[in-house]
Design goal:
This protein is mostly helical and 391 residues long. 70% of the residues lie in helices and 5% in strands. The longest helix is centred in the middle third of the chain and has 34 residues.
Length: 391
């Protein structure tokens, strides 16, 4: 009963504090929208700047296939040099004169790549695409050349059979049903930038919200509020439970708003996944709340509690992969697995992407393990701080 009174007092204070609401509710939403606006473009369609000094059929074939994979911008030679000099562009593909003749003869047709510095990431992507297109054309040109040589060796007169038309038919058949194919099979959930971002930002702010509660615990202890609570029969577990309940309420308010953002997507997750993520958030909040009360019990001053909450949240969030995927490096992966934020992100992302029970079981079990190990320790430290009072 007393724990619920303490929780209601904390919640009323939170809801009446405009700055607290702005930080806890508006900031994570704005940060998520900003990250998605900057990095969340689902399809990357690079721009290829091209100078065609050949103008033949082969050059036009190259341009057509390149246009299917990149946005094509045709420049003349002078304009290309001028834009490169001004750093207005950083890469240019140059089809040299005699490109088509060299391709047909099998002598080897090449492209010139003009670039400023490294040519930018976009330029490197365009260069890779251009090499792939050129390889396709070279293989087809070699096929035409070999068929003509074979027909000549057999004594077939060029006028009696349209050799190129027959070759075209075989190449089209091969393109429609290749003898060698590659099949891509996705195992597990397909990663989604929006879901990954929401899971990361939500986990970070859930941790920060409840660990920041350590500041309030220290302030109440130092100001004598805890001593007055003792006189009216409040026990340490009442304050412990009230603080935990208030922290969970604040966090669930954040989680509800953040997950509601996903309903604005073109293909939002099903409602059952959103509810599952909301339920998983309760477990994350319980784990994070225990950590916050542990910090509140250990800190002696408001400044210690504040900086402990900030540093712990930032280190856990960055190492846990809030803003980026954890690399395959053994060192990075080992550091990430020390952070409770890592398991919160993994669990939320798996639920939102429909990864199945096997993907959720590990983060769920590890958060429960952290809660089971640190829960008694946090209460013991909290009780010692309660007994110290104004010390």
């Amino acid at each position: 009963m007393k724990a619920s009174l303490i929780a209601r007092r904390e919640i009323r204070s939170h809801l009446s504090d405009v700055a607290d609401l702005a930080f806890g509710l508006a900031l994570p939403v704005l940060l998520t929208l900003l990250i998605l606006a900057v990095f969340g473009t689902p399809d990357f369609f690079p721009t290829a700047h091209l100078v065609d000094a050949d103008g033949g059929d082969a050059a036009w074939a190259f341009r057509g296939r390149l246009a299917d994979r990149a946005q094509l911008e045709i420049l003349d030679a002078d304009e290309a040099h001028r834009l490169l000099e001004r750093s207005a562009i950083h890469h240019v593909l140059w089809i040299p004169e005699g490109f088509g003749a060299a391709l047909a003869s099998g002598e080897g047709a090449g492209l010139r790549i003009l670039r400023r510095g490294s040519g930018s990431l976009e330029g490197q992507v365009v260069t890779a695409i251009a090499h792939a297109v050129l390889s396709e054309l070279a293989v087809e040109a070699d096929a035409y050349r070999r068929v003509r040589i074979f027909a000549d060796n057999l004594g077939i007169e060029p006028g009696t059979v349209d050799i190129d038309a027959r070759t075209d038919a075989f190449l089209e058949r091969e393109a429609a049903a290749p003898l060698v194919g590659v099949t891509t099979r996705t195992v597990g959930a397909v990663p989604d930038m929006a879901l990954r971002t929401v899971a990361g930002i939500l986990s970070m702010f859930l941790l920060f919200t409840v660990t920041l509660g350590a500041v309030g615990i220290v302030e109440e202890r130092r100001s004598g509020i805890v001593e007055r609570m003792k006189t009216v029969g409040v026990r340490p577990w009442d304050l412990f439970g009230g603080k935990m309940a208030a922290g969970i309420f604040k966090g669930m308010l954040q989680a509800g708003i953040m997950l509601a953002l996903l309903a604005l997507l073109d293909s939002p997750p099903p409602a059952v996944r959103l509810l599952g993520a909301l339920g998983f958030s309760i477990l994350a909040l319980l784990t994070f709340g225990i950590l916050g009360l542990l910090l509140g019990g250990l800190a002696r001053t408001r400044e210690q509690a504040l900086w402990a909450a900030i540093l712990f949240t930032m280190i856990s969030s960055v190492s846990g992969g809030t803003f980026f995927e954890i690399s395959a490096s053994p060192t990075t992966a080992a550091i990430a697995r020390v952070s409770p934020v890592y398991y919160a992100i993994q669990g939320l992302q798996a639920i939102l992407e429909g990864g199945g029970w096997s993907a959720v079981a590990t983060p769920l079990g590890l958060l429960l393990g952290i809660l089971g190990i640190l829960g008694p320790t946090a209460f013991w430290v909290f009780r010692r701080a309660w007994e110290r009072g104004l010390e």
